[in-house]
Each structure stands twice: as C-alpha cells, then as structure tokens.
Amino acid sequence: MKYRCTICGHIYDEEKEKTLFKDLPDDWKCPLCGALKSDFVPVEDAKAKKMISEPVEDFEDMEGLTVSQMSALCSNLARGCEKQYRFDDMRSFTELAEYFGSISPAVNDGKVEDIASRIMSDVNENYPGAVEVCSQEADRGAWRICVWGEKVTRMLNSLVKRYLEEGEDMLKDTQIWVCTICGFVYVGDLPPEMCPVCKVPSWKFQKMEAKA
Questions:
Q1: Cβ-contact 34, 185 below 8 angstroms
Q2: 84 CB contacts (<8 Å, ≥6 apart)?
C-alpha cells in the first residue's frame, strides 16, 4: 500500500519502507515537507491523485476584499511575478502590498482555533471556486497559482494542528523558514534543499525573525 502527502506529493511505500503506514507513530512527519501523518492519503483515493478539489457547480462573484486581504493578494502576485521574471510588476505589487499592510487594522482578539477554521474554509470552499474561474478562462498560470496555494494552505493547516497540540514547544530551539516564491512554511534548523511546492532552491527561503 502507498500513501501520498497531500502537500508535497511525497509517497510513502509500505513495501519499500518495511513498515505499515498505520503502525507509524502519531507524531511521524513527512520526511520531505514536515507535514503530519494525517495529511497523507492512500494513492487510490481520488484526492491523492488530484490535489485541487473538483470545481463547484456554481460560483458566486467574489465579495469585496479587506485591506488585509488586499495586502496578502498583492504580496502573492508579487511573488508570482518574480517567478516569471517580471520584476517591474513585482515591485509594483510589493509596494501595493506594503501600503495595504500599513493601513490594515490590528487584530487583538485572534485565536489559533479561528485561524485553523479559516484555513480549512480556504481549502474546502475558496479554492474550488478559484479553480472553476481558471478553467473557464483557460488560464494555466492562475491555475498553477491555485495548485501552489492549496498546497501551502494545507501545510499551514498542518502546522496549526501541530501548534495546538505542542504549543510553544513546537518552536523551541528551531527556526521558521518561508519560501519567498510560493509562501511554503517550513519548521526546522535549516530550510529544505528544494521547496516541496514550487521547486526553487533553498536560498529562496527567508528566515522569520521573532518580533517583540
């Protein structure tokens, strides 16, 4: 039996590893991206063969975005432009992201549980709608962004679940690295040699410094 990581696509082959997947300890993690054991699915499962959920039947117009959402959107577009070597566009989107970020209101009552709920809402509701639009417009570039985005979002969900279980111990004596191209987040002493999502080298990762 084989199992696939829904984040980076790594295959765990029971025959090759000589250990049944169900017998792995609960705290076992993907050797490539660090995802949780619960983020793996059997390869026969349709979800394992297609990372992006099936398009929904109906798609309503997007609601107005908040300034925080605009900041995140422009930041992601800047990274996409960098990947395509469109550096003038990258700088423009970066300036917009910084502007919207500077006027975003502070969140004083946020909870980790709320973050987990919003993350899964993106995976289960928002990405299917985005994929539907990409299909209608035959936009392969936007579709690829959705593929990257869903994988990164699933990784964030995996990390949030770990944090809810381990608390601050999860971040003790280690580092947090973020891929500057796709936003993939990795917890470890050093960044991975290659981003599991967008395949850029380790020097594209940025270490996140703790803020007071």
A1: no
A2: 141
CA nearest to 183, candidates 160, 164, 161, 206:
206
The bridge status of strand 11-13 relative to strand 40-42 is: unpaired
For residues 109 and 93, what is the distance between their CA atoms, to the nearest angstrom?
A: 29
CB of 157 within 8 A of CB of 123? yes
Over its length of 212 residues, how does the chain's per-residue pLDDT go in tens digits?
999 888 888 899 999 999 999 999 999 999 989 989 998 999 864 443 444 344 444 445 445 778 888 888 888 788 778 867 788 999 999 999 999 989 888 777 778 888 888 888 888 888 888 888 888 888 877 787 788 888 888 899 889 989 988 988 998 889 999 998 888 999 999 999 999 998 889 999 999 886 54
How far is the first Cα of the chain from the last one, in angstroms, to the nearest whole number?
47
Q: Is 171 in contact with 187 (CB distance < 8 Å)?
A: yes
What is the model's pTM? 0.62
At 167, the amino acid letter reads G
